[in-house]
Amino acid sequence: MPNPWDVGSARLLETSGFEALATTSAGFAWSIGKLDQSVTREELVTHVAGLVDATSVPLNVDSERCYPDDPGGVAETVALLAEVGAAGLSIEDYDPASGAMDDVAVSAQRVAEVAEAAHRLADPMVVTGRAENHIRGVDDLDDTIARLMAYRDAGADAVYAPGLSDLDQIADVVEAVWIPVNVLALPGGPSIAELASVGVRRVSTGSLLAGAAYAALIAAEQELLIDGTSRYAESAVPRDLLKDAFDL
Fold first, then answer.
1. Which of 25, 119, 124, 134 has the most CB within a 10 Å radius?
2. In degrees rounded to 5, what are phi and psi of residue 181?
3. Residue partners of 57: CB distance under 8 A and separation at least 6
């Protein structure tokens, strides 16, 4: 389940054969000139509406903390995303305002609110509870598993601990939680086949595809600025692929 950051990348990924997509909070933020975790709820909902309109596969939404401090809180976030056609959403347990992990009881209560709102819809949305420990400097697998189990018990349909790259640790998570586990595909991490072998049900790319695209842009502009050449264009995207993705 790769993570496009705009309509063009979403169409290219769908055309390539992926059967589901997910947004990336960081990738989307970069695409509108912002840093991650500074996108407003209105901006996110507009972004999701555009991706849903442009594609025909299910779209999961990286909805950060589900905007608990916005009017209506997390339940309103669910309603807004459902209205524009999202198939699922995730909720995180890291608070950028404090720079720390939320208390697990507080996070579990928010997961419960999201799950209640998402599951009572005529077309229920898939809810993913996220434990952010391993991308926030908290290398504590036991705490991660305890958080994921709490989110499962609160009603999450799937769980996700981005940053895990050790296959044995991932297997421990899968065995402990007993509901579908999402894993972030990381450089040097297990392959999709290896993840499948220990029971992982879903793999996403987070901001990595957007980061690779922006890295290619930076390399190209550095070549232009420093060397004055355009060898970067030798690896341009094939025009027939663009035609397949965009000529709808």
1. 25
2. -115, 130
3. 14, 18, 19, 20, 21
If you search the block for the tokens 């898939």, which residue do you land on?
126
Q: Take residue 224 and report the two structure tokens written for it.
A: 């232009």
| E-state strands within the chain | 21-22, 59-62, 88-91, 94-95, 100-101, 126-130, 158-160, 181-184, 202-204
What residues does 101 pair with on adjacent strands? 94
Tokens of 223: 């070549």
pTM of the model: 0.96
Instruction: Count CB neighbours of 166 within 10 A.
Output: 11
Token pair belonging to 230 = 């355009």
Tell me, what DSSP letter sits at residue 142? H
CA distances from 121 to 7, 44, 125, 147, 151 (A): 26, 20, 7, 26, 20
pLDDT tens for each residue of 30-67: 999 999 999 999 999 999 999 999 999 999 999 999 99
- Secondary-structure breakdown of the chain: helix, strand, coil percentages, each rounded to the nearest 5: 50, 10, 40
